[in-house]
Structure prediction request, 310 residues.
Amino acid sequence: MIDEELISRAIADDDDAMEELTEIADSEPERLVPYLGRLLDADVLWPATMYRYAPADVVERIIALVDGDGVTGARLLALANSRHQLAFEAMRRWIDQPPAGMDTLHVGMREYAEEGGWTIDPDGSRRDLCGDAAFEWHLREAPEPLFNPACPWCASPLWTAADLDGAEPGLAHVGWTGRLRFRTCHFCSCYTTLFSEVTPDGGSTWWAGNVRPDYLGAAQPEEPPTKLPSPGPARGNPFQASAWSAGGSTLGGHPQWIQDAEHPGCPGCGRTMDYVGLLGGADFDEYGEGAYYLHVHSACGFAAVTYQQS
Ligand SMILES: [Zn+2]
Ligand SMILES: [Zn+2]
Prediction:
């Protein structure tokens, strides 16, 4: 049971209370469910992750607010995080019939949905991009040296970010059969999304269509990390990945974004790629920062690595 006082303090805009609620939204989001109506009464919609298990009546109230007096980013983020079927149906409707105020927002309805870990495909169907199951992902020294070709941009040896068995339960939502290897440049992936072509025998090849950003200057080749992640015990819920803390690397589940959600589009088909896992900089070394995010679109055989930092 959450202290009533905590909710009252959050409603009074107390920073410590908001921080505590943000943590609860990741560790035990279901505990917030009885209080969401009160928070909504007080127009407390941030952090939107508080609405992860919002029940139908709360979701319906937010939809009515949008239909009644217009859309705000905060309302869409709360709906996206609820992942509720009613939220999907409303957001799909608003793609064709934009609610009042939609022209003041900087991104579209699909981008908002993706903040909650799901998308609306071009045919109007819903697709979850993230997994229901999440597993600790422990970084260990690779059992044998990793011999990889060099990055065509910076000449660093390519980095094996992960080497997975498609049967891993943390990968159940991506539908990959065989071995799935992520090979990318640890340096250049900090500057732009890097795609690889992947095959079920573990093949992972730099995609020739990767676009080198102009601001990526000449760099000295660097040795990539020699640690490989291996899956550990299941986490208590899908939301416990941490992009900040040591031990936060997680296979499956939902990412913790440092910036806005960033689910890349598949170079093969243009659809949004499925999310695979997060590797936190703090798990590579004690001064490490930022986080790498791994994605795949199994049907097309494309993998991607993105990176965010504060
Ligand atoms: Zn590179
Ligand atoms: Zn695709």
